[in-house]
Amino acid sequence: MADTKTLHGLDDVLDTLKSLPPEIVSKRGGPVKSALRKGGVVVQKAMQANIRQVVTDTQSHGYVSTRVLEQAIVVRRDPNPRRSLASERYRVLIARSRTYPDGRLNKGKPVTAVATGRWLELGTEDQPAEPWATPAYMTSRERALKEVVDQLGRGVKLAIRKASKGR
Question: What is the pLDDT of residues 138-160, one digit of tens each?
């Protein structure tokens, strides 16, 4: 499996980031935060496209889409990236709070987008798996990495210009 924790080819960008004043590469912003978010959006869009495809395939069986799962796929900043040994981290995930209208499980609990996403990805006893998240990640990870590198380079250059004007 590919290395998903290390970005290769960013040595000069990372050296430049380390040389910047701390307020530019701060928790409140900076080029790293926005670059990682934009990379996450690339993966998010791929996942949403895969969900639309799965829904299109199942509409022939009388299924009508409410787009709840598609809209529940979000990019979120990890509030504690240090637990994964990172200084900044974004995750693409399914929002836990999203539920289907009038959808009830047999125990009276609402059907959530997280449960539906798992059922589709892994399958159930009654339904074969229709993977959508893993293929989306595998096909979009190179584009996401390229987006992060491009945005990080632009952001660092912009931060250097702003810092040099302020001195």
Answer: 999 999 999 999 998 888 888 77
